[in-house]
Amino acid sequence: MSIRKIGKIRIRRPVEEARENILAAAEKLLVEQGPLALKLTEVAAAAKVANASVLHHFGSIDTLHTALMERMVQQLIADLLAISDRVGDEEGQRDAVVRALFDVFETRGAARLAAWLELTGEWKRLTHVREAVASVVTKRAGFGDVTPAEAQDLVLVSVLVAMGAGLFGRSLAHLVGQAPAHTRSLAAELLRAHVVKRMDS
User: Fold this and answer.
1) Are 54 and 67 within one domain?
2) Which of 158, 148, 165 is nearest to 195 (CA)?
């Protein structure tokens, strides 16, 4: 449980609600200021809790970083699986998947957090990501048009392209005098073409 003050009244939050509050605050900081803002005092202040409350629920700020990345990946996977269950044309579903993928890595800052975790050696702690990727691979292979190995390759390429665009896209576009969204558009177009080519081969 976590305690939150409202005026002079203390309200005790359930553990999951308290963790979610902290993670939501951390994600907002990530989007607005980048990974360097994800420090203990900043996250606690944004979540309106004491530093000790963050440590109580996550143990360390590094563990919070990992939990935030896993939360973002799990939300992305849930979105992708929901898209694949929709009734509609294949091209429309493919475009929706690409948009969701690029949004989480660029707009929501997952690419910058992933790079930060890689540079600090914390990426290896993301054990739940393997399970999340496996669920997407299983779902995709279940359509019958690709093998599990081909589905895994599609997932790897998709994440690689979206992460690259999310991490460097805006900066590269700025350097060559293009609109901020130009690089993302190019990357998304290349990814769609790659998927179509793999499906037709």
Assistant:
1) no
2) 158
Do 163 and 66 share a structural domain?
yes
Place of tokens 């203990």: 40
Residue range(s) defining the domain that contains residue 35: 2-59
Helix (H) or strand (E) holding 13: strand 9-13
- 112 and 27 co-located in one domain: no
pTM: 0.79
- Coil, helix or strand at residue 182: helix
Of 30, 103, 16, 105, residue with least CA distance to 61: 30
User: Which residue type occupies 182?
Assistant: H
Please name the residues in contact with 158: beta carbons below 8 A apart, sequence gap of 6 or more: 97, 98, 101, 191, 195
Residues 176/117, Cβ–Cβ less than 8 Å:
no
Residue 107 to residue 170: CA distance in whole angstroms: 11
Q: Counting Cβ atoms within 10 Å, is residue 133 exposed (0-12), middle (13-18) or buried (19+)? A: middle
Instruction: Say how many residues make up the chain.
Output: 201
pLDDT (tens digit, 9 = 90+) per residue, 117-176? Answer: 898 888 887 777 788 888 888 888 777 778 889 889 988 899 999 999 999 999 999 999
